[in-house]
Automatic annotation (TrEMBL):
Record-level Gene Ontology MF annotations: DNA binding; DNA-binding transcription factor activity
Record key words, sorted: DNA-binding, Transcription, Transcription regulation
PROSITE patterns membership: CNMP_BINDING_2, CNMP_BINDING_3, HTH_CRP_2
UniProt KW Transcription keyword: yes
Domain HTH crp-type residue range list: 148-221
GO cellular component: cytosol
Domain of life assignment: Bacteria
Entry protein name: Crp/Fnr family transcriptional regulator
A matching Pfam family: HTH_Crp_2
Organismal lineage: Bacteria, Bacillati, Chloroflexota, Ktedonobacteria, Thermogemmatisporales
Domain Cyclic nucleotide-binding: 14-134
Length: 228
């Protein structure tokens, strides 16, 4: 493993404060994995023995209702990690993880992860902070489902995606994720038909533009006004 790869964990918040020797020790037991676009990394209820740390690409975390409707919970990108729930509580996976594009990541086995936490308790503190943020985000998703109409939920989700995965262009901020209407519908808890109508309305108003499964926010201020 090259020096850059060995110290890659310095870019990951929960591991950034570890001494270089500890990082090298951790990366020495890490394994590199590559997943194709659309490939399932793990299913809900699978045994959870591995932590995934993303080096390149984006991963969708989602759950499916008994009738088959998908709800997307979050999208993780470079420098983020997922799969820690099962490593911490020993229970099966709580959701599906799917590669949205080609994903390159490092994996840590549960025993190696636990040894790292015992040796460096600050890892656990950072993990708890991260879990708290994710739980707060889940609370906000529930509030949105209760209090916002579909256009409001779509507008808010587009602004969130632009903030997390946006790329500035001459026409506005492009969300650098391949998004279908069904993907967006799963993120906001609505039907594809409803989201299609909302996107058409936003396009007609000039708030957004679409093309090649990418959405560009042209007038984010007006989009923000539509949330409430």
């Amino acid at each position: 493993m090259s020096t850059d790869e060995t110290l890659y964990l310095k870019q990951v918040s929960s591991f950034a404060e570890l001494p270089d020797d500890d990082l090298r020790e951790l990366m020495a037991v890490a394994k590199k994995r590559i997943f194709r676009p659309g490939e399932v990394i793990f299913h809900r209820d699978d045994p959870g023995q591995v932590l995934y740390i993303i080096k390149e690409g984006k991963v969708k975390i989602a759950i499916n209702s008994p009738d088959g409707q998908e709800i997307s919970l979050v999208i993780f990108g470079k420098g983020e990690y997922f799969g820690e729930f099962a490593l911490l509580d020993g229970l099966p996976r709580s959701a599906d993880a799917v590669a949205l594009e080609r994903v390159e990541c490092y994996t840590l086995q549960r025993d190696d992860f636990h040894r790292a936490i015992l040796k460096n308790p600050r890892i656990a503190i950072h993990m708890l902070e991260s879990l708290s943020r994710r739980l707060r985000n889940t609370d906000r998703m529930i509030e949105d489902l209760i209090f916002l109409d579909v256009p409001g939920r779509v507008a808010k989700k587009l602004l969130e995606l632009a903030e997390l995965h946006g790329v500035p262009t001459e026409n506005g901020v492009r969300i650098d994720i391949r998004l279908t209407q069904q993907d967006l519908a799963a993120m906001v808890g609505a039907s594809r038909e409803s989201v299609n109508k909302v996107l058409g309305y936003f396009s007609a108003k000039g708030y957004i533009s679409t093309g090649h499964h990418r959405i560009t926010l042209r007038r984010p201020a007006e989009l923000k006004e539509r949330i409430y």
